[in-house]
Design brief:
alpha+beta; 3 domains; 6-stranded mixed beta sheet; 9 helices; 6 strands; about 35% helix; globular
Amino acid sequence: MATQPVPQNLDPAALIAAAPDDEFALVELRLDWPHDLDVHPAHTQLWLRCFVITQDPLGWIPDRGDAWTAVTLDDEVLEVDLYLTLELVRRTLEETEGDLAAAVGRYATTVLAAALAREEELVQGDYPRRAVRREVPRLLQDVDGDHSAFGVPSIQAKRSWSKVGLGALTDLVQHAFGEVDLDRSNVTLDPVEPVDEGCPACDGRTFGYPASLEDAKPAMCEQHRAAAVAVNTARLLRARESNPAGWRAVDKAVMRVNKAPEPYYAPQPPRLVAGTPARNEPCPCGSGKKYKRCHGA
């Protein structure tokens, strides 16, 4: 008789206690507030997601803190993602006598209250850029405020720890550098002739981007393989042009998470400067280049 796999312990507190060592991993915690609490925005659906991350992939940046947010708009959905370091959660657990809901809820209710109060500002789509430039307050700015009206959320976990992926990396980069316009929507390639029965794209499959598309390329026919390369090239070019410093940070973070040789450069978030910087000073955009070779060119 085949041995049945041992079921995973998805108790949130147990997951935090058994976090992997020496890895870039995260776990998503589902937070649910009391049903009689009015937490519905006026114009959109609000989806708050909370992640605990073992290590910061952007750890080369000084004074990063240990809690970050990212904002994404998708049709009528306003998604706000909250990332907390494992170290922060464990530290806060000591303050809450081991109450994980209270520890995580301190940050989640802060973000929820701010997102509800500032919904119109967030749906305009320019919040990430303005937050980096300190033109608007961060969603976690009032973390020491009183949010007791929201109560303490219940916490669940649907799956265990997993590797930090591209979506999380672009969220973390958004907090530090502003939005990088990387299209992560699914990819369906156009039909070609002649049809290759062994090609997954000829079979009409839809591929997640980027991992599923990349994994499927070796099995594709020559025409679809070229089309997949073209899609990837166009999306990466658009992302790079949308935020050069942010894209360089994504590149470095991807190498770091995959334990590959990292680029020598260490992009820094945009700096606020008074007036025009000197030609040999670092460009305030955060590219790491001298001003004269970047925005001063």
